[in-house]
């Protein structure tokens, strides 16, 4: 999508998510650092989405948010801009109020954080109703169509940020 709206712009996408990984206690930080090691091509933008598993495993919200700040700090310290993504809805939201409250608290922290970063509210952008049930594989995981929908939403948000940045430079 970005390459169609910005001809002549080279776009490389690196996806490095792992099923079941945690932002707080998994390999998230380690994997992020790997992409910014000396000799690697620098990234203009780093998009960070995570914490669904942290919330499901009842990791303390403050620990989740502090872990996000560490992750965001890695690309920021290497000159990359960060687009932080809120934790998306899940089809089980109607049956698990505790998880909903925890997710909402983490999202509030993400939305309120601005240390040279940008935020996209995927939670709000991704409807969770009967018409959109096709996006979920189970209660929390997405179908390929769901991931494409998410990618389109994030791509539009990123495109807006890039266009705004370019217009400020001219």
Automatic annotation (TrEMBL):
Stretches assigned to the SGNH hydrolase-type esterase domain: 16-147
Pfam families: Lipase_GDSL_2
Protein name as annotated: SGNH hydrolase-type esterase domain-containing protein
């Amino acid at each position: 999508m970005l390459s169609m709206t910005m001809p002549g712009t080279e776009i490389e996408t690196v996806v490095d998510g792992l099923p079941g990984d945690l932002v707080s206690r998994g390999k998230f930080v380690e994997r992020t650092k790997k992409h910014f090691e000396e000799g690697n091509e620098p990234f203009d933008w780093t998009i960070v989405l995570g914490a669904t598993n942290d919330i499901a495993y009842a990791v303390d919200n403050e620990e989740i948010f502090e872990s996000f700040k560490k992750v965001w700090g890695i690309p920021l310290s290497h000159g990359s801009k960060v687009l932080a993504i809120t934790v998306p809805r899940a089809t089980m939201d109607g049956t698990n109020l505790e998880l909903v409250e925890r997710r909402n608290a983490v999202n509030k922290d993400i939305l309120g954080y601005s240390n040279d970063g940008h935020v996209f509210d995927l939670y709000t952008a991704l409807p969770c109703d009967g018409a959109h049930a096709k996006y979920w594989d189970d209660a929390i995981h997405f179908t390929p169509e769901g991931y494409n929908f998410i990618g389109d939403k994030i791509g539009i948000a990123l495109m807006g940020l890039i266009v705004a940045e370019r217009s400020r430079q001219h």
